[in-house]
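INFO worker-7 received task bundle
INFO bundle size: 2
INFO processing item 0
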Amino acid sequence: MGDAWAVVESSVVIESHDAGELVPWWSFTKTVLAAAALVLVQDQVTELDAPLPRQPFTLRQLLQHRSGLVNYGGFAAYHDAVARDEKPWPVPFLLQRLEAGRLRYTAGGGWDYSNLGYLFVRQLIETLTGESLDSALRSLVLAPLGIMGPRIAESPSDLDQVVMGRAKTYDPGWVYHGPMVGSVGDAARLLDHLMRPGLLPPDLLAEMRRPHVLPGLVPERPWIVPGYGLGLMIGETSFAEEVLGHTGGGPGSTIAVYHAPKARPPRTVAFFAPNEDRSRTEENAFRRSGSRVSALGG
């Protein structure tokens, strides 16, 4: 399989190619986790801005990568172990190796992308619901949106029918926040539904979509004004005035799922590629967003 994509306008797929193939959603899963956490906030099961039990950071800071937690994605030993096809480390061992109890900056005092932070979000969701992550996401997000195909992959056998590029022996346990797999079309439909009031009330949706603007450009990526909301990469790109969504990548593939609210009509695009070139995958998604093609974008 090569590239695959789906373009959605007003919940209707208007353009697609191989959009029914099952693919790893990688870090687009963070958007689904954030939506589930905000549903729990709406239901008054937890709070957005109160410190979590026995922790110095809040749920908002976890969702926005402002907790001070380190990112295991930047840990060389982690990548070496994945490359050697080792079994995923138990969570306590991961936390020990990363010195997870030592914040790299005071919570709320900086920004640094942290996969580890979303492990804490996963644990919070599972604790508050008393369910597995797959079951919790199904009841909190997928069923209300009418999208029941996506699922959390827990073991290598869960990837048997999933397009993984070169990563034939990958163990999804290495994605500690839980990697969701689903079709490209479902990724576009999910984000399209999520970006309109319904699952979340207008006030919480506005909180999710309010970005912390990051300083400078993202090296070798098509972002002009990058920012991060609650589980959403947000900003202006060289192809679109504004996009909201998430890029994800892992061994063998990348996916970019973005909503362009200023397109007329608003448009949501999911683009998957069986390679690890995040920049190219984002460019292909942004080009299809229909918001604006600039001199930088061609």
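INFO item 0 finished
INFO processing item 1
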Amino acid sequence: MPSDPLQPPRSPDELLARLRSLFPELSAQFQGGARYLLDHPQDIPVLSMRKLAGNAGVQPATLVRLSQFLGFDGWQSLRELFVDVLRAGPQPYAKRARKVVRETESGRMLAEMLEAQHQNLDRIANANAQSLPRAAELIAAAPSLHIAGFRACFPIAFTFHYVYRLFRSSVHLVRGEAGTLEMELRALAPEDAVFVASFAPYSQESIRVATLARASGCTVIALTDSTVSPIALEADCTLLFSVESPSFFPSVSAGVATVEALVEQLLAKQGKGAIRALELAEGQLHQAGAYAPAGGR
């Protein structure tokens, strides 16, 4: 283990990432505590240290020493990272809208929005360098893929479904229209892959899809804003995207960019078979009159 003192992580995601990276170097006792924290981060803000230690099969003092090793002055400081996230929660849209109306000058709006989108795209590149190829492997290996995204995440799910289905037929969009979500989820079969997109505040539908997919023996891929989101906790592979925006509503642009990058990897993985399927789909669309003739009428 490193001898130099560590600076304490500044967020739950940073803490969990540090635990994963240091895990092989930890003592057996520390590994016992770290394993439980990694597998059950949702318990950290709501259970006592004694209860957590009992669940992990270690002594409470082990969690104190593990916290100090990670750079905190004790367990309570580590726990506060997760408590603060719960306490803050997502800011109501109306409150954000009032701030936009009150503080934003029209001349700065476009520049601020473009800067936020640029930063969001930078974040997905850094966060998904390893997980994006893994997601492509899991999806390509599955007999069928079911894609779900509700409310603001529906554009992400629809884009993924529309583009990927151009060269793969066993791709299905979960819509949940007219209260039919549970009926649609009856189609989930063991070894299928289920892709779910959601960000805080997380939709109940997305959580139901991820939970039922896990129970059905499916491989779950989550596209979300945190490694401790409800759908990430059910996932075999998690892709992260940021929804930061100077406007009143979170931005899904980085989520759309992530699935576009994922489709690119899936196309490359499928190779010549994907090209043939894509040529066939394009030909059928033109023959069916889906597109206006080039050059006008």
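INFO item 1 finished
INFO post-check item 1: The first strand starts at residue 145 and ends at 149.
INFO post-check item 1: The CA atoms of residues 207 and 231 lie 6 Å apart.
INFO worker-7 idle
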